[in-house]
Fold this protein.
Amino acid sequence: MMKKQLRWQSRSLSLSLLALLTACCLFFAVSLPAQADTVRISDPVEVLNVQQVMSEGSNLAYPLDVYTTNTFSGTASGFVQRTISAHLTSKRLIVIAIDVVHRYFTVVGGSQVPLTKAQYTTAGQAFKNAAAGNHFTSAMLAAIQSLESSLKSHTSSTSSGSGERC
């Protein structure tokens, strides 16, 4: 009789622990969407403080790719089109690209990023305002913070992009 009671208590304890573990997993799973997504940076020109940009970019709820170049030849609109065709590889991805020679800047997002063209343009303006004197890291941080603010507002589900000259 004692063995049956111990087995029952053991099963009860096991089920309670399993329920607690499941509750903890659900809690963390629900809180993850507000956490950081992937941040990838390609900075062959070495104009960014990669750690700072990664840290700020990790606050976005969408993956972020950042590119710098000094080899692009073409117009500002060509730079935007090249960024979209070469780097916008996911519907959830935000891409920021800088041409440091011509001082082109673009920020584009996939169709599942809930930002308007005006919000991308605002991020571009934040970059431009902070880029004086080749302070590309400060400018990039300003653009990312603008995107963060816009994403928190969730004012629209339209996605587009903006090309700016900084």
